[in-house]
Specification:
By secondary structure, the chain is of the alpha/beta class. Helices cover 50% and strands 10% of the residues. Helix 12 links the parallel strand 2 and strand 3.
């Protein structure tokens, strides 16, 4: 026992000596303790939670720029009735799109110097307001390098200056006189955007359907503070980046289905010519009516016939490759997805769910009825070339590494449990046991083991066999019946293409979704992840909330929040809105529902904004401080260690420098 105690004391001393390099004397350590203690008493930063963005980059970027309505709210609070609604709209648009709005103003404004003067004063006022809840040190770190000193002077009260108004006016006058006003306006606008959101949580599904997931990823990689909980659509792209053929085929098929092959070809520079050439040749005279394209207004319809051929060609390849994985892994329990070998080509039927169904299409020139899951040599060659394109795509690999380093299947943060889909449950609400590589896992353990497989599938290059198995598990996380991010009994892709009977299209959700208002079940989940049931929330997306049918995202009196409100245009007819942002700040939690976004051009030219309706989920009885957060816990530990260092200086254990 004494030996252990001595070892702990030695470790503690070693740590304190290391800390002494950073704080070499009593004065330095004391100053840091005072600074950290002050930070603990500041209001907590504002967290924004978004989910199921599905490539809708313009709306996503606008929501970040307007802080889910926070920027306009700050303008209203600061200027009240002293500014007209028109001037408030103009100021808001300038903050969202400073460079683009400046280009218009410079062409239209007759007295640009006066406009600069008025605008800079207004921007400084808003900057002061949004910076007021942070330490000067934190604001300083957020300041743009070129204007850091000037902005700090303008937003900091200087008691020693007698003529404050004259002092600040002279700074602004000089900025205009030396021709730096446009750059300064851009810097202030970006700083305001930066300060209204302290931390961003993306609760899954950045990819698929919409045209710009790569643009969203570029934005996130530059963002000041973000974490990501992987959704099933992110997972399948991660598998594709690993080179896993069924994941690659799935990614290409979904892009073809939604008319967004440009995301792959132009967004990521992935060469699909081998697939297009193969589809044109092999499916030249083949009926592809079942493979219609769900395109939006940006889609070039001249590509329609080719894209339908590509769509069919890659779908058949996907079903073959998936069949190979399912046969290799009986523990997946997905034999009901093996349907290519159940087709009767004479009767044009398929045997599924214990009966025969008429098929809409049985014209498959590459399927051998005696060996239906085998790729033809041409299909193998096409997939080998596309696989290399995915593996060698530097931009995709960069994005996926970011997903790995900043993400996971779940996150515990400030008493919130974040995950994309569900915690698999049985009908009684108990954690469902899931077979993963011959061992049963449930609850948090299931999340942890699948998260581990997802990472191994990308990084375990020194264990090729283990890496291949892990990649199969990445595919399982995408579509498996007990996957927490999929949360359904099956993915009926085959049936939706080939069987008219809609009964076969049904995908039954996990019991979790019927128990969302059961407090006992939700408390069990929170306890499983080590959270306090009295003050914690579960936040997830994945299943669009059909507001127009009377559904609500707020479950169990706010204990659980499903925040998928239809960012994706494909879902907006179902949800009746265009996405949610959950906002957690020092005053509590509120849910912001967004109206559809017209376009960036309309936002700039017509100064149109997204109308956002806000609902209070929870009001904090006392303003929440940094001390009450996870960062606060870390700061308290730092203070404790610094106080030990002070004691070591005072008793001579460590010598001051």
């Amino acid at each position: 026992m004494n030996t252990e105690k001595n070892e702990l004391q030695l470790m503690e001393l070693k740590y304190l000596k290391s800390l002494a390099n950073q704080y070499p004397n009593i004065a330095a350590a004391s100053t840091e303790i005072i600074n950290l203690q002050a930070i603990l008493n500041l209001p907590k930063g504002t967290e924004h939670f978004l989910t199921d963005i599905h490539g809708e980059y313009e709306q996503f970027n606008h929501v970040l720029k307007n802080g889910s309505g926070a920027v306009r709210r700050q303008i209203d609070e600061e200027f009240g009735n002293t500014l007209s609604n028109k001037d408030k709209k103009s100021l808001a648009t300038l903050i969202y799109y400073p460079q683009e709005k400046l280009d218009i103003v410079l062409q239209e404004e007759e007295n640009i110097e006066d406009w600069y003067k008025i605008t800079l004063h207004r921007l400084v006022q808003i900057t002061k307001k949004v910076a007021s809840k942070y330490t000067r040190s934190k604001v300083r770190k957020a300041l743009p390098k070129d204007f850091a000193y000037i902005i700090e002077e303008l937003i900091t009260e200087r008691a020693e200056i007698s003529d404050k108004e004259g002092y600040y006016n002279e700074i602004i006058h000089t900025i205009i006189r030396i021709g730096r006003a446009p750059e300064f306006i851009v810097a202030l606008s970006n700083l305001i955007q930066r300060l209204v959101i302290d931390h961003l949580h993306i609760v899954g599904d950045i990819y698929d359907r919409g045209p710009g997931p790569h643009i969203i990823m570029d934005t996130l990689m530059k963002y000041h503070s973000v974490d990501i909980q992987w959704g099933n659509h992110d997972i399948v792209w991660m598998g594709a980046a690993c080179g896993h053929l069924p994941c690659i085929a799935t990614v290409v098929r979904i892009a073809a289905r939604y008319g967004s092959l440009d995301t792959l070809e132009e967004g990521y520079g992935i060469n699909l010519i081998p697939l297009a050439t193969f589809a044109l040749d092999t499916y030249k005279d083949v009926n592809c009516d079942a493979f219609a394209i769900k395109y939006n207004t940006d889609y070039n319809t001249k590509d329609l016939s080719l894209d339908m051929k590509i769509h069919k060609a890659i779908s058949v390849i996907q079903f073959k490759l998936e069949g190979q994985v399912i046969k290799k892994h009986p523990e997946f329990e997905m034999d009901d997805r093996l349907l290519l070998d159940k087709i009767d080509y004479e009767k044009k039927t398929v045997f599924a769910y214990g009966k025969e169904y008429a098929m809409l299409d049985t014209e498959f020139p590459t399927v051998d009825p005696n060996d239906p899951y085998n790729l033809t040599p041409d299909e193998e060659q096409v997939m080998a070339r596309i696989q290399q394109a995915f593996l060698k795509c530097e931009k995709l690999q960069r994005h996926v590494r970011f997903l790995y380093s900043n993400g996971g299947l779940y996150k515990i943060h400030n008493s919130n449990l974040l995950y994309h889909g569900c915690v698999p449950l049985d009908e009684e609400g108990n954690f469902k046991a899931v077979n993963v590589d011959g061992k049963k896992y449930r609850g948090r353990e299931l999340y942890d083991v699948l998260d581990n497989y997802a990472r191994k599938g990308y990084y375990a290059k020194n264990d090729p066999a283990g890496m291949r198995k892990a990649q199969d598990y990445i595919w399982y996380i995408w579509a498996g019946p007990n996957s927490p991010v999929f949360g359904k009994d099956k993915m009926t892709t085959f049936e939706r293409y080939f069987i008219a009977d809609k009964e076969t299209h049904k995908e039954t959700k996990n019991s979790y979704y019927s128990l969302l208002d059961n407090e006992e079940v939700l408390n069990r989940i929170l306890e499983e992840f080590g959270l306090d049931t009295k003050k914690s929330h579960i936040i997830n997306g994945h299943v669009p909330v059909e507001l127009k049918k009377g559904e609500t995202p707020i479950k169990c009196e706010g204990k659980l929040l499903i925040i998928d409100g239809g960012f994706s245009k494909a879902y907006q007819s179902k949800t009746g809105i265009a996405g949610y942002t959950l906002v957690a700040n020092s005053h509590g939690v509120r849910l912001v529902a967004h109206e559809p976004f017209e376009s960036m051009e309309a936002a700039i030219q017509q100064e149109s904004d997204i109308f956002s309706d806000s609902t209070i989920v929870e009001n904090a009885p006392v303003r929440i401080r940094v001390a009450d957060t996870d960062i606060g816990t870390e700061i308290k530990e730092s203070i404790k260690q610094l106080e030990l260092l002070l004691q070591a200086y005072r008793d001579g254990t460590i010598i001051e420098k």
